[in-house]
């Protein structure tokens, strides 16, 4: 999750040489949108909402007929309508999520299940999406620590240090591999010794965001492509983000409005640019119904300025203050 950032070093020391950042391509006024409504690469409801919300569009399930529909095999995911069911069933079953619920979750330790499984399910879905669109490249992972353009910086250090996060990654990636076995017989291991499941799970941990719609709880998590995930954190952000639900029963029509924040980086791998171009020019039905994110300007921004959002909840005083101290001290 974005929040993994806050426990480590001061902000300005963490960006590596291959780090991406987003800059304004023109001056932008207060409250103006910097991005289109970006469709997700992958989403997953938190376990607590699997029986109250639609796993495809994240809307509340109807309490009146027509009743919600569920997957007949695993009975673990529910949909608000037949459109949502049909748009999601391919990714639910082919990503291994259905198998994960039906068979593999039983192999997980109870502490693992108590903590929730949305990160593992989002990772299964992310890998499926990236594989379907030819965005998984071992070269990119070996050379620049990216998968589908998403940063996986720090994975080796986290695994070497051990501890709870490393344990969760190792256990989760093993569950993912066994759930994916039905479609991928051979597991991909990169030259750095990491499996594609480990890399995808870490990418979800550092690139996903909690999805909150109006004043509801955090319903689940979503992973977006470079046009959202390349925004860096600041304790004094000049932009913020919010979610919108895709219109019900409507085919995904690509929002082609211009991005007003564009990536900037020296020396990044060509694959990362490929991932950005894929998303920028995309007419693909990215996450047909999932919650979309929009980045909006909260302070006037000049052309060329870096655009930053905050990864932390500014209303949670303790977290905010400790991070603020770190930012001020740099
Ligand atoms: C979602 S990515 C942000 C985009 C990232 N810079 C990239 O190259 O893809 C999150 C990661 O970016 C880095 N990051 C984001 N904001 C940062 C900041 N203010 N200072 C240092 N590193 C930051 C951290 O490594 C973090 O785990």
Structure report:
The chain has 330 residues and is α+β, with helices and mostly antiparallel strands. The chain has a domain at 17-38 and 224-328: Beta-clip-like. Helix content is 33%, strand content 14%. It is built from eleven helices and 13 strands. It has helices at residues 82-94, 97-102, 110-115, 118-132, 138-144, 155-161, 164-180, 196-207, 226-229, 270-280, 317-328; strands spanning 21-24, 42-45, 69-70, 78-79, 146-147, 150-151, 209-212, 218-223, 232-233, 239-244, 261-264, 292-297, 308-309. A three-stranded antiparallel β-sheet has the order 2-8-7, with helices on one face. The radius of gyration is 19 Å and the shape is globular. It binds S-adenosylmethionine. The site of S-adenosylmethionine (SAM) has 17 residues, from helix 8 and strand 9. S-adenosylmethionine (SAM) is lined by residues 5, 11-12, 14-15, 19-21, 151, 153, 206-207, 229-230, 232-234. Residues 137-312 form the SET domain. Pfam families: SET. This is SET domain-containing protein.
């Amino acid at each position: 999750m974005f929040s993994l950032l806050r426990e480590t070093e001061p902000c300005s020391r963490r960006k590596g040489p291959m780090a991406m950042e987003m800059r304004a391509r023109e001056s932008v006024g207060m409250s103006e949108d910097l991005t289109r409504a970006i469709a997700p690469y992958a989403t997953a409801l938190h376990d607590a909402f699997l029986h109250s919300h639609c796993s495809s569009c994240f809307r509340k399930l109807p309490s009146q007929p027509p009743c919600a529909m569920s997957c007949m095999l695993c009975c673990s995911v529910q949909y608000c309508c037949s459109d949502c069911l049909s748009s999601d069933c391919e990714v639910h079953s082919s990503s291994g999520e259905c198998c994960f619920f039906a068979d593999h979750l039983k192999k997980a330790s109870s502490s693992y299940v108590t903590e929730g499984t949305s990160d593992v399910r989002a990772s299964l879905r992310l890998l499926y999406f990236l594989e379907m669109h030819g965005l998984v490249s071992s070269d990119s992972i070996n050379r620049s620590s990216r998968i589908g353009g998403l940063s996986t910086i720090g994975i080796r250090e986290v695994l070497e240090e051990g501890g709870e996060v490393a344990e969760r990654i190792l256990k989760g990636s093993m569950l993912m591999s066994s759930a994916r076995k039905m479609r991928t017989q051979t597991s991909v291991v990169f030259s750095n010794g990491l499996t594609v499941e480990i890399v995808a799970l870490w990418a979800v941990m550092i690139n996903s965001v909690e999805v909150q719609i109006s004043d509801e709880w955090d319903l689940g998590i979503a992973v977006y492509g470079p046009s959202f995930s390349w925004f860096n954190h600041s304790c004094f952000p000049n932009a913020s983000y919010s979610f919108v639900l895709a219109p019900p029963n409507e085919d995904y029509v690509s929002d082609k409005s211009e991005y007003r924040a564009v990536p900037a980086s020296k020396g990044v791998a060509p694959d990362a640019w490929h991932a950005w171009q894929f998303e920028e020019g995309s007419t693909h039905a990215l996450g047909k119904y999932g919650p979309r994110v929009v980045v909006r300007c909260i302070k006037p921004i000049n052309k060329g300025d870096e655009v930053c959002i905050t990864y932390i909840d500014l209303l949670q005083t303790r977290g905010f203050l400790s991070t603020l101290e770190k930012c001020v001290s740099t």
